[in-house]
Amino acid sequence: MPNGAAAAVGVHPIAKLGFGGAGLSAYEAARPSYPPESIAHCIDALGLRRPGPVCDGNSPAGGPPAAGRPRVLDLAAGTGKLTAQLAALDLFDLSAAEPSAGMCDAFSRACPGVPVVAAEAAALPFEDAAFDAVFVGQAFHWFATPEACRELRRVLRPGGGLALLWNLEDAGQPWMRDFLDIFQPYARRAGVPNYGLGTHTAALASPWFAELFDVSPSPSACSKLFRSRQPLTREGAWLRVLSNSFVASLPEAEREGEAGAMGDKPTQGTGLVNMVDSVVTVITNDGRHIVGILRGYDQATNLILEDSHERVYSTKAGVDVLALGLYVIRGDNIAVVGQVDEEADAQLDLGSIRAPPLKAVTHG
């Protein structure tokens, strides 16, 4: 039996309540992926792009790894947000561990090719030195304890490494600060571990952590910030808040009351909107709702806007083609520009497009 099997300290009760039901569905819908450059940084820092040395791979999660491929564990993998990005790189043999049964089910649907075990950080069902690296996305604050960190060190081979990632809201945006002011008090009241409250920082700076992991010259020197721009509407912001366990675990009436409070906050600014095979709501600067429905390039003309609008066409390649996910709201509002296609990262140059007059389309 693995050495850590008897070391369980239990999952936080708020996590048990919040990461099921409404919290689980909000988590799947609202939690963003990680900036690719942040993952690349972790891979390079851990030396995972080059073959070996690798561990022997003996664990309940599966057989030995392919020759020269490092073994990587995604711990507290949730619904597989980070795992899916790691798997797409095809650089390692991946395994996952997640304590929530509901999230394990969602994980298996999202990442069917990656074995997942139901396990807590302080009681991992893996042999000693089973992995070359452990990734933890958006979760280390839940188990930043000596017991769990000793278990992480146990399953890592000598010279193996630990990558801790978090996606953070931009508190520099006034309307996002309003949202944070609404839900952060719940975390403090419930005593819930939370990145925004700095739960993990004491652990990273502690003598016991330094005995397990090399954080020289300092924990902050081992960290790097990556900025990314991701679409967020008022509804999306509420889902993002609801995906926090300490909000999702509230009584329904209290949750709905906070949703109303958030809805009263003016949403300022616009952002990139990816409408590829998705249903999207955008909030313009003056608070109008524009609902777009788009299912792939072949059905791009199915885009429906709730308000007056003009569709914007691209003249690229000499033909008039509806630029996928691209439209402009006229008036005093800043243009809302979506991605051109699933693979495009940059928005179109507005100077290269024209907007022929089209009949307005409204909801029937």
UniProtKB/TrEMBL annotation:
Main subcellular location: nucleus
GO BP annotations, alphabetical order: mRNA splicing, via spliceosome
Annotated signal peptide: none
Domain (Sm) ranges: 267-343
A single GO cellular-component term on record: U6 snRNP
Location(s) in or outside the cell: Nucleus
Keyword Nucleus: yes
UniProt keyword annotations, A-Z: mRNA processing, mRNA splicing, Nucleus, Ribonucleoprotein, RNA-binding, Spliceosome
GO molecular function, one term: mRNA binding
Keyword Transcription regulation: no
UniProt-listed CDD domains: AdoMet_MTases, LSm8
Sequence similarity: Belongs to the snRNP Sm proteins family.
PANTHER family: LSM1, U6 SNRNA-ASSOCIATED SM-LIKE PROTEIN LSM8
Protein name as it appears in the record: U6 snRNA-associated Sm-like protein LSm8
